[in-house]
């Protein structure tokens, strides 16, 4: 019989930390803590397999589930010494969702479940506090109605406000037991009104309602969006954990809090956390009350005036520190923990590997490796390559003038400027149009995820370092300033106000998430330092990787950036980009529109010096490193003049009538340019183009090799869009003949090789034959994906979204290589090519060369290098090291 339910509590558990796939992260770690002898309220976890079953079987449960839940619940009752639904001594539970990876898009936790008109009496007796009991009851009705029944919060807020007005109260604290008792009646009446049926009194019905809501939430829009952004497959499912309640709100010897074993913002090895006395659950992160620091050091650092836990509850604080040490040592990683104190007893409610900023991740990994807690290999594997992105981008120039508007908490580092917007939807819309925006909210909620992702930075006026905004921003790598309390936001007016300064929607502000400053306007930025922890980790990574990392670059600036980031050559220099410049495009157009070879040669002769200069500067930047130059590739179509003025210019430069130019342009127009007259087809029809380019390369190489003390450059001449060996043979002959001519003229030689891009399925299949001529293959996986999938990259956006949502392709095949299909072609080409020419150089130069998933694939098929855009070079270096380590471990 399948086991659908796993219990924990009382120093033992049926689950373990390594059962996350089955129990979800939360359930697995609760089990692990219980096994470690840490006090955890007893409970049980319904597995993710039930979720899968639920969706596979028309939203029904496996038939053994009810019995297994009943048995598990009985165990919880026994270990907590209370009965679920028992009026004299009720057991109350929380119902918590938990996927493998933590997912803020999921259902909110329901607390205090099991309360009804009878059990609330038992709670009064147990706590001796009627006000607390009725307050818990009304909170439960509110939460359950909102989360499970879909009756919105505002209904209850309305009733509460009316009651307060009636009684002349201003604060919630003025309400007594009788007030809450009356409100419970009114709340339930409202639910009845809204739903046409009563609020469920039966605890069992409450429980199954909540369980169903958790499974239902797996497919809600928030969760789907979150999964898409984080590439979490829909097939994973969520688990549900049902756990005995402990109360942090039963008096002054009660508390609840959230803490991190190291500072999640900087990575510094200091205990960090926030707590509230006499509070429950989400109060700490909801931003309703200002959370207090747990440690004295934290209090001083945050200039807080509120007492720390270390001062208020020194014994419990010590116990918490011991738990922190135990958990961090056990998991060998920084922990994010939730705890509640009831009547002077500490209970742990959650632990997980803490989300952290990129600088913190780096610092923690490097510190832990240096402390011997983990190995350097583990440190390499622990950093998400994508996270490095945050460290490579500009920071605020410390010398720049800045007008600080206000200050909040430094919730997620990095600097960002943009136009202020006040809701997530606007942020998404504006970002789609390429605008930089800063999302400003009083506080954020899971619905805002899409907008937070689209924004350059996030500013909130409420909430602490562990608020939703802070946690999500750190996870996404968005700079965030949280809890900027001086800021008044008026959503209706679309303004934020600090003192007498009013900032309107669309006005620019700058955030510094590292120090919490909010500045008016745009503040200039500087390049980050690539030394320290970053340098250490990169050094470890470079020692482990077997693939080289090159860059895709054609401008000197890009080439220099890439060298700074540690690239080992150029894997793709696109020569056509060099022709779009205003001064050059006129000659390019003259060349294309020429009536005959003589006309083309005349125009090409004018392009030659520019091209040669381009190569000279690239060779100088890449001294001693290989530079792969792709000969002209794009459809001629792209260079055609459009306006009358452009046509007139070309006609004048070529000394012909505009009508002739217009006619020629119409002849060259194509209906499907991507499959038209482009790539090596240009070289076959107009060999003089490639001849000029080859000449520019050789003349540049010879010029640079004459530099004082220079190592000779290593040009690799690459022919694009080859489908047949014959094409390559013909074009290689042009290049070799040009080399011979240039070498004879100059009285010297340089080394070079000729190879091809593999970007057509036919070329991949014919890799064996093509390698007879080619000395290298570079996989042009952008075009290879387009031609293999028969899908245009530029037009596939809208339907690919649907495809991904429906799980046809799990990832965007243009961002992450389609390993099954395109990958097989790459593998075939590699194998057949190497069978012909064992020392055939293999590399990849598509977008995929900077994508960690695709890099792992490149390692598995034995490529010599990957090539990516300059800012992705460090990401690729780390991903290549991880790929090598993972492969070696297999
Ligand atoms: P999330 O996944 O959003 O963190 P949790 O399931 O961890 O949601 O629940 C949120 C908060 O609710 C917890 O941090 C804790 O304070 C409170 N909570 C959950 N279960 C219990 C419980 N059994 N007893 C007391 N508080 C609980
Ligand atoms: Mg939690
Ligand atoms: Mg291409």
Task: Please describe the topology of this protein.
Blueprint (H helix, E strand, L loop, with lengths): L4 E5 L2 E2 L6 H16 L7 E4 L1 H9 L8 H16 L2 E2 L5 E2 L1 E7 L10 E4 L5 H9 L2 H20 L3 H15 L9 H19 L7 H15 L3 H10 L7 E7 L10 E6 L11 E6 L5 H4 L5 E2 L2 H6 L7 H4 L1 H18 L3 E8 L2 E9 L4 H13 L5 H7 L6 H4 L2 E2 L7 E4 L1 E4 L2 E7 L2 H9 L4 E5 L7 H6 L2 E4 L7 H9 L3 E3 L5 E3 L4 E4 L2 E4 L3 E5 L4 E4 L4 E2 L5 H13 L3 E5 L3 H9 L5 E5 L7 H12 L3 H25 L4 E5 L13 H11 L3 H11 L11 H6 L1 H19 L8 E6 L5 H22 L6 E6 L2 H5 L1 H4 L5 E4 L1 H9 L7 H9 L16 H15 L4 E4 L7 H9 L4 E4 L4 H17 L1
Parallel strand pairs: 4-5, 17-18, 18-19, 19-20, 27-28, 27-34, 28-29, 29-30, 30-31, 31-32, 32-33, 33-34
Antiparallel strand pairs: 1-2, 1-3, 3-8, 6-7, 6-8, 9-10, 9-12, 10-11, 12-13, 14-26, 15-25, 16-20, 17-24, 21-22, 22-23, 24-25
The protein binds adenosine-5'-diphosphate and magnesium ion (MG) (2 copies).
Protein architecture, described:
Helices cover 46% and strands 17% of the residues. Helix 15 crosses helix 20. 52% of the residues are buried. The protein is α/β, with parallel strands linked by helices and 890 residues long. It has four domains: 240 residues, ATP-grasp fold, A domain (Dna Ligase, domain 1, 2-Layer Sandwich); 102 residues, ATP-grasp fold, B domain (D-amino Acid Aminotransferase, Chain A, domain 1, 2-Layer Sandwich); 133 residues, Phosphohistidine domain (Glucose Oxidase, domain 1, 3-Layer(bba) Sandwich), CATH 3.50.30.10; 311 residues, Alpha-Beta Barrel (TIM Barrel), CATH 3.20.20.60. The strands form seven sheets. The chain has an eight-stranded mixed β-sheet. The chain has an eight-stranded parallel beta barrel with strand order 27-28-29-30-31-32-33-34, surrounded by five helices. The protein contains 35 helices and 34 strands. Bound molecules: adenosine-5'-diphosphate and magnesium ion (2 copies).
């Amino acid at each position: 019989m399948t086991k659908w339910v796993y219990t924990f509590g009382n120093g033992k558990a049926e689950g373990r930390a390594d059962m996350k796939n089955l129990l979800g992260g939360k359930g697995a770690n609760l089990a692990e803590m219980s096994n470690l002898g840490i006090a955890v309220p007893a409970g049980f976890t319904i597995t993710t397999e039930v979720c899968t079953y639920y969706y596979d079987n028309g939203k029904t449960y496996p038939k053994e589930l009810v019995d297994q839940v009943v048995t598990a619940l009985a165990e919880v009752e026994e270990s907590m010494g209370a009965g679920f639904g028992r009026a004299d001594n009720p057991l109350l539970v929380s119902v918590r969702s938990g996927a493998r990876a933590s997912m803020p898009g999921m259902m909110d936790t329901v607390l205090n479940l099991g309360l009804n008109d009878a059990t609330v009496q038992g709670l009064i007796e147990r706590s001796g506090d009627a006000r607390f009991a009725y307050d818990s009851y009304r909170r439960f009705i509110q939460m359950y109605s909102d989360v499970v029944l879909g009756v919105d919060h505002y209904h209850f807020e309305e009733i509460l406000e009316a009651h307060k007005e009636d009684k002349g109260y201003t604060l919630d604290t003025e309400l007594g037991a009788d007030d809450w008792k009356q409100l419970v009646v009114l709340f339930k009446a409202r639910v009845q009104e809204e739903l046409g049926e009563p609020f469920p009194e039966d605890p069992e019905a409450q429980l199954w309602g909540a369980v169903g809501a958790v499974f239902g939430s797996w497919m809600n829009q928030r969760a789907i969006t979150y999964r898409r952004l984080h590439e979490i497959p829909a097939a994973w499912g969520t688990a549900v954990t049902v756990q005995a309640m402990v109360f942090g709100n039963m008096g002054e010897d009660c508390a609840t809090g959230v803490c991190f074993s190291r500072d999640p913002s900087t990575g510094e090895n200091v205990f960090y956390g926030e707590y509230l006395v006499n509070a429950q659950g989400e109060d700490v992160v909801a931003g309703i009350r200002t959370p207090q620091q747990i440690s004295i050091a934290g209090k001083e650092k945050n200039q807080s005036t509120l007492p720390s836990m270390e001062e208020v509850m020194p014994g419990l604080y010590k116990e918490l520190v011991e738990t922190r040490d135990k958990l961090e040592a056990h998991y060998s990683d920084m922990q994010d923990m939730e705890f509640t104190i009831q009547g002077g007893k500490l209970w742990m409610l959650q632990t997980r590997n803490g989300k952290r900023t990129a600088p913190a991740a780096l610092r923690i990994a490097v510190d832990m490796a240096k402390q011997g807690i983990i190995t350097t290999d583990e440190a390499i594997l622990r950093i998400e390559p994508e996270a490095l992105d945050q460290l490579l981008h500009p920071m605020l120039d410390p010398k720049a003038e800045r007008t600080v508007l206000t200050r909040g908490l430094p919730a997620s580092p990095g600097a960002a400027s943009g136009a202020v917007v006040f809701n997530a939807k606007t942020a998404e819309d504006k970002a789609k149009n390429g605008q930089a925006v800063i999302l400003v909210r009083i506080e954020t909620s899971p619905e805002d995820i899409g907008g937070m992702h689209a924004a350059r930075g996030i500013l909130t006026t409420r909430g602490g370092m562990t608020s939703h905004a802070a946690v999500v921003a750190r996870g996404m790598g968005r700079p965030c300033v949280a809890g900027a309390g001086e800021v008044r936001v008026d959503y209706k007016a679309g303004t934020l106000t600090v003192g007498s300064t009013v900032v309107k929607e669309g006005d620019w502000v700058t955030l510094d998430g590292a120090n919490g400053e909010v500045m008016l306007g745009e503040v200039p930025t500087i390049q980050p330092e690539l030394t320290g922890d970053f340098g250490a980790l990169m050094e470890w990574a470079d020692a482990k990787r077997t693939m080289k990392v090159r860059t895709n670059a054609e401008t000197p600036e890009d080439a220099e950036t890439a060298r700074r980031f540690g690239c080992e050559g150029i894997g793709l220099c696109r020569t056509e980009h060099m022709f779009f410049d205003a001064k050059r495009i006129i000659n390019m157009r003259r060349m294309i529109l020429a009536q005959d070879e003589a006309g083309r040669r005349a125009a090409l002769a004018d392009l030659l010096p520019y091209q040669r200069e381009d190569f000279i500067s690239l060779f100088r930047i890449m001294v001693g490193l290989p530079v792969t130059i792709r000969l002209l590739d794009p459809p001629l179509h792209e260079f055609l003049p459009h306006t009358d003025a452009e046509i007139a210019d070309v006609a004048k430069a070529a000394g012909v009538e505009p009508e002739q130019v217009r006619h020629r342009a119409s002849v060259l127009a194509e209906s499907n340019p991507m499959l038209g007259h482009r790539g090596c087809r240009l070289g076959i029809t107009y060999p003089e183009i490639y001849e000029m380019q080859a000449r520019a390369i050789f003349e540049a190489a010879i010029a640079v090799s004459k530099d004082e003390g220079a190592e000779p450059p290593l040009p690799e001449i690459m022919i694009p869009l080859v489908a047949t060996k014959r094409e390559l043979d013909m074009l290689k002959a042009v290049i070799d003949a040009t080399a011979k001519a240039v070498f004879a003229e100059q009285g010297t030689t340089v080394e070079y090789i000729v190879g091809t891009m593999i970007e057509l399925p036919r070329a991949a299949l014919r890799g064996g034959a093509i390698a007879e001529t080619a000395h290298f293959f570079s996989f042009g996986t952008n075009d290879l994906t387009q031609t293999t999938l028969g899908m245009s990259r530029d037009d596939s956006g809208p339907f690919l979204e649907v495809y991904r949502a429906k799980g046809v392709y799990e990832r965007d095949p243009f961002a992450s290589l389609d390993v099954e299909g395109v990958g097989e072609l790459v593998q075939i080409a590699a194998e057949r090519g190497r069978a012909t020419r064992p020392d055939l150089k293999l590399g990849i130069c598509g977008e995929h060369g900077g994508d960690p998933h695709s890099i792992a694939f490149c390692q598995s098929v034995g490529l010599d290098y990957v090539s990516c855009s300059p800012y992705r070079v460090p990401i690729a270096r780390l991903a290549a090291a991880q790929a090598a380590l993972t492969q070696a471990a297999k």
